[in-house]
Amino acid sequence: MFELFAQADATAAGFGQYLLLGLVLGSLYALIALGYTMVYGIIELINFAHGDLFMLGTFFALGAATAVGATTADAGTGTIVLGLALMLVGTPLFCAGLNVATDRAIYKPLRRSPKLTVIVSAIGVSFIFMNLGLFWRGATPVKFPDLIPDTNLLGGAGSVRFTLKDAMVLGVTVPVMIALTVFVKLTPLGKAMRATAQNPTAAVLMGINVDRVIAVTFAIGGALAGVASVVYGLYIKSADYQMGFQNGLYAFTAAVLGGIGNIPGAVLGGLVIGVVGELGKAYLGAKWSEALIFGILIVILLFRPTGLLGARTREKV
Amino acid sequence: MTAVGRYWVPGLFAALFAYPFLPVAEANRGEQFTILFVYALLALALNVVIGYAGLLHLGIAAFFGIGAYTVGILTVPFFPFQQSFLVAALAAVLVSALVGIAATAPTLRLRGDYFALVTLGFGLITLYAIRNLDAITEGTKGLNPIAAGPLPGVKENVDLSALKVGDDWGARWYKYPYLYFVILSALGGVMLLLRNLERSRLGRAWVALREDELAATCMGLNPARLKLAAVAVGAGLAGLAGAFYALALRTTGNPQAYDFTLSMIMVCCVILGGLGNRPGVLLGTLLLMGFDRIATNLLDNWLQEEFDLGGGAYTKVSGWKLIIFGTVLIVMMRFRPEGLLPEARHARELRESDDQAVDSGQKEK
Amino acid sequence: MAVLSVRKLTMRFGGITAVNGVDLTVEKGQIFSVIGPNGAGKTTVFNAVTGIYEPTEGAVHFEDQPLVKPLKGKTVAFALAVGLIVGALLLLLAVNVEGLWQAAVRDNYKKRDDDFTIGKALGSAASYIGAHSGRALAGFGLGFFFGVAGTLASWRRARHAPDVIAQNGIARTFQNIRLFQAMTVIENVLVGLSRSIATNPLLAALGVGAHKGNERDAERRAAELLAFVGLAGKHNLIAKNLPYGDQRRLEIARALATNPTLLLLDEPAAGMNPSETVELMGLIRRIRDRGVTVMLIEHHMNLVMGISDRIAVLNFGQKIAEGTPGEIASNPKVIEAYLGSEEVS
Hints:
CATH architecture of the largest domain in chain C: 3-Layer(aba) Sandwich
Shape of chain B: globular
Oligomer: heterotrimer
Low-confidence stretches of chain B: 353-365
Helix content of chain C: 40-55%
Strand content of chain C: 15-25%
CATH architecture of the domain at 3-257 in chain B: Orthogonal Bundle
Number of strands of chain C: 10
Distance between the termini of chain B: 42 Å
Number of domains of chain C: 3
Radius of gyration of chain C: 28 Å
Largest sheet of chain C: 6 strands, mixed
Order of helices and strands of chain B: HHHHHHHHHHHHHHHH
CATH class of the largest domain in chain C: Alpha Beta
Low-confidence stretches of chain C: none
Radius of gyration of chain B: 21 Å
Mean pLDDT of chain B: 83
Strand order of the largest sheet of chain C: 6-7-8-3-9-10
Number of strands of chain B: 0
Structural class of chain C: alpha/beta
Shape of chain C: elongated
CATH superfamily of the largest domain in chain C: P-loop containing nucleotide triphosphate hydrolases
CATH topology of the domain at 3-257 in chain B: ABC transporter involved in vitamin B12 uptake, BtuC
CATH topology of the largest domain in chain C: Rossmann fold
Mean pLDDT of chain C: 87
Largest interface: B-C, 52 and 60 residues
Number of helices of chain C: 14
Order of helices and strands of chain C: EEEHEEHHHHHEHHHHEHEHEEHH
């Protein structure tokens, strides 16, 4: 352990490559983290099932691509584009619908129960999602086809590679985050969301339909997880039914790191976790990188539970 | 309380003690039961933390693992220590309790959900440490063989066939009963120990703390110390369970045995049976783990023989394990959060949380 | 002798000053009342005295000792011990615990008949750490610093904690009753008695020692206290099922169980009917006669005027008057404060 610089490609280019990879992965974590953070901001629930929702999303995305024949070796460009479009539209809808349905069926009847009751229910949902994933695609990891080529966009000269796939990740995640920020800041529904997050009782008194706001929050959180799952599938190209737990925890760490309930915080946290994870893999070895991230989670919770950007300290006793 | 309610636990223990002497006894079943007792011990340990002190701990498997590996390190022949199991088990209890205190002390200030997360992270980090520290834990190979004799001066294979009453049951069975009896006795001992603890001032102080921390503090109770005591007792017992686990398997096994899933299944057992209620926790563990370890195999064999359903995961009962556990959690939380055999106070607390939230006007620091 | 003296107590919450420079002195054996309109800061004073809040400014002295725990040698020693342990742990991580184990244990015991001694292992461990002394030192230093700093920081937070103050001999009741609702009546009192039950819980769990006798003794004392406040015969009822007046009395019994020198009662008569209030006055006097100094917040003027030895009046966080009931009743400032508040409300 702590064999610093043992396996690392300790050149500036190596560092740059890890940094870049970390940022790309980090923007993925950020998308998942947003779902955690928004739900937590509204109903103070650590939604343990969110990572598994993301896992089901990747399976759905693969199913959508297969359905139009985009995954066959001889698929034409048109079919592939159609497949991609279907994935990008269908998966977020699927995840949003599933998330809202879960909330309605499982969490809503528990709104007035002790917080830990709801958390335990969320763990139960996580188990069920995982089992559904197992039924859907079996226990062995499933492979995604190469729908987006791995072309290096930086030319062959430099040793840092920035591929079309990397560009795809940023090209999807960045606009989605901007859209979300605009939505929350400027639309009436977004304002209602922020109001509910700050004080649900006052929000009800102001005539805000809190149930609707919660439903919308779950829908948006689910849709973001759906987008993340498509991007993840195209980028990592492998998925299995157990991946939700770990990716979900990474994303949750990101949300806590940025300040839970805080939307820009989740993005920042995601990027930091992505970069730290990749650098950890490079310099501490892959097997300690996970421990490093959960170590960060613990340290943050202990010393700065409000996170990097979290100013909101609504303490419900 | 009816007579059945009062006497089923002693009755159950009596039946389990008698089981090896019955003509229906099977060696395989005995082994499975022995593991079940170990998990019941672990669930009772978790119950101290969740049920008594009200701390949602999601990393109990870590202490189970620490206990198992302590025994492994102290008894395997390729390490120089080679202590008897008794010494090793005592060390396992102490090490787990100390790790529990050390890992929990900095987290006491955290609120409930953050505490749950930190314990989750602690469990994962412990698992990674077990898996990755090859020089100490032998990684995925596990530490083995673990020395057999659980009590000094007695070999593991005590031949009980002299006591045989049926035909050849003793011959199949004699390999196991000694360990079976040792672990069952330990389970019974821990049940009694926890009963005494519940009725002591410590037990009452835990209830008071869980119900109203501020009021309890104003009665002169130190909340940090009480919570640490609960974690120390819980972690120590979980370490004992881990020690027995390693003893029963003769190896620490695959590190996967100490992962998050185990922690969560133990939470399921405690919640299903009844938070804070020892007989309930025992029942919950026997139901869930009995289902998981014994009933699913029987059902699967039967289904395959009768219907020949093919190989898909959903055609096996064992494939539905997580759905069943998840549904148990959700249904219990929704309709009976106090568990199948509720502890009287928890039932009152969980049913009344609504109006408590309304009139807690006193602000806390 | 002054049991309690509050000096220039100021409590600020954000921009709001709830209590502003209040001085109070409660003499031993007194019944001392604090009155004032709603929002005058009475409960805030109680919360500052019982350690729920830390005073923004000013000090609270109990039996002429400051309520804040002084830093003792024991605490420093404990912090140093924690520092050493955390330091040792980080040292192990920093030098690579696997390598250390390999050097100390595995390399000294390669074959079954190798002569392994703890001394030899420690020697190898020391030389391994010596070979990585830079990292070892850095890890140890870091761990030591965080261990000591963390322990001292949590000590600093805890030195004004309600449990320490309760142990020193100040007990209280709450304006909104805070019983352990799901427990029985006698269990509530037994929680209050916790600290006077001598048995070590671990020995009790093992069934060793005089546990049973101690418990019976505690139950006897609890029964006495319940009889004292007038709850005899209700031992096994669930606390929250008691009528309101009984809940108030149970809270008093629970507080008395901690064996206090000073008892703070926060609106003990709230919600009681006139006959219950009269009983309560008798009870408060009997508490005083047991040698417990009583300080109470109350709106019920008959009760306050009837039993108090001294009364302090708060308004808008400031003390506007203090004196005997007769002096207070005729004090123009007090009358103005009450009538003024009446007009507003």
